[in-house]
């Protein structure tokens, strides 16, 4: 951490007593735990322009989303070469890690069911009247932009296919926007919080659902566990492919 960031951070949380790199890192940032007398925080830093934009969006989401289980926003700083988000350190591990560490199938099933319940509650309590593909149209424009600058895994053909085969709209809800097992935290064997919320906005809940089941879709026991918790909608195979195998390839 450079001097400027240290100063900015200490202005907000008091003198830093300890700093450590987290063992579990994401792909788009460097994440440090900072401990001061008053607070335990996470300093998340991104360097590439694309990821700096995402970090800024994450900061906005933490600032404006009320009533959603998210880390608390403390501050956001930008330098020439990097951006930094300061937020509360939250207990627990990612669901991915919790599943790796699970001791029995029963534990895994319990964890995945709780993921379904958590997402169910989130979508259900943040449902809107909007019944459209507005969010999806915007994502396709963003996808085109990433494709043009060589920042997407998906191909031009795939993007054309996605544009030509829009799914029937469903009622839009608040969504996480990158709802994988990496981006929810588990405490006491339950999913209880979202992290990495750059994509949180009103959008198509099928995107969250598709990414949520993406890691265990081929396992019927896990899939049943998820849908014991997530009861409001079940994706068709076509919808799953559209979102997880399709749209997600551009982000
Ligand atoms: N507020 C927090 N409290 C505790 N741990 C956190 C917090 N935010 C992030 N982490 C930890 O840091 C890791 C990386 O965070 P995050 O997913 O936000 O980074 P990323 O680089 O955006 O990841 P991705 O690869 O999904 O883009 C997480 O797996 C989690 O272990
Ligand atoms: Mg992440």
TrEMBL record:
Keywords annotated in UniProt: Transferase
Superkingdom per UniProt: Bacteria
Pfam families: APH
Protein's UniProt keywords contain Membrane: no
Domain Aminoglycoside phosphotransferase, chain residue ranges per copy: 42-231
GO molecular function, one term: transferase activity
Keyword Transferase found: yes
PANTHER family linked: AMINOGLYCOSIDE PHOSPHOTRANSFERASE-RELATED-RELATED
Protein name, entry field: Aminoglycoside phosphotransferase family protein
Species assigned in the record: Bacillus salacetis
